[in-house]
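no rush on this but wanted to send it before i forget. theres a chain ive been looking at and ive put its sequence and its fold in token form underneath. please have a look and point out which stretches look like helix strand or loop to you. thanks a lot i owe you, the record is right below:
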Amino acid sequence: TLCCVSTLGLAITLCCVSTLGLLFDLVYREETLLNVIKSVTRNGRSIVLTAVLALILVYLFSIVGYIFFKDDFILETMEILVSEVGLMLDVFSCVPNLPDIVVVGEDMEDGKERTCDSLLMCIVTVLSHGLRSGGGVGDVLRKPSKEEPLFAARVIYDLLFFFMVIIIVLNLIFGVIIDTFADLRSEKQKKEEVLKTTCFICGLERDKFDNKTVTFEEHIKEEHNMWHYLFFIVLVKVKDSTEYTGPESYVAEMIKEHNLDWFPRMRAMSLVSSDAEGEQNEIRNLQEKLESAMRLVCNLSGQLTELKEQVTKKYHLPFEELLLRASQVSNEDIQWFFC
């Protein structure tokens, strides 16, 4: 019987531990949950230093409370008595059971207890109840009367603890955590945006494929599919080196040297062919313009030849001689002729 109980307890313990391990594995695999943990650990130094500042302030307020407000540290307490000592292991929940628990609070005087008779107890009380109370340590201390001589000092004490510890220090810690989580979320969004708008293999952006024969989606799915590159790397690793082809030998050597120069960085065959077609179209357009210009020159030459013939017939002089005489006429002669 004892062996069966031990075996059952071991099996239940292993089940609980394995379940805990699976839960942690889920946290590790889910990026959002992992960012929650990183929001605390990334700026851990700032959080720790701020927490040290909070402890220093708690220590100072504990000293002031121990010196001036020792009688105000009176808290309600309840004593727990266990009539039967023993632990039973719940088979289904893996949680220890405390049987026959009796709560007794009437035996104490008014159910209250002084918690600042020593400096250590003052520190523990301020640290435990002061930080967990929404209004600070003043929420758990005795409510003083306005006729007491230290009433104003007590009000200042409660307000200073509330503003310095609760509002400033704790919110500084929360602010660091929230800002870190926001930065991690922004980084995640930037990564997703880069993966959506940039080719993982060549690094070309989506706008490079505008007005091209190949779209960006076709490029990342067919031309530069990252899984095809991964399969090729696995093929090179598992294939016998004596059966390598030329490209496989080159890639295997580059992988061994951790060199990524064999990746087509910032270039793609589809863009090269599109650019070549574009250049051919430009050359074709230039040729057409050149041919039209040559035809225009031929027409002008024909018209000039006809003009020469007409001038020669009319004035019985060569066209070149007429041009020479016209160039020799001065501006004064032209003005005299018109006057």
In short: The chain is about 65% helix and 5% strand. The mean pLDDT is 78. The radius of gyration is 46 Å.
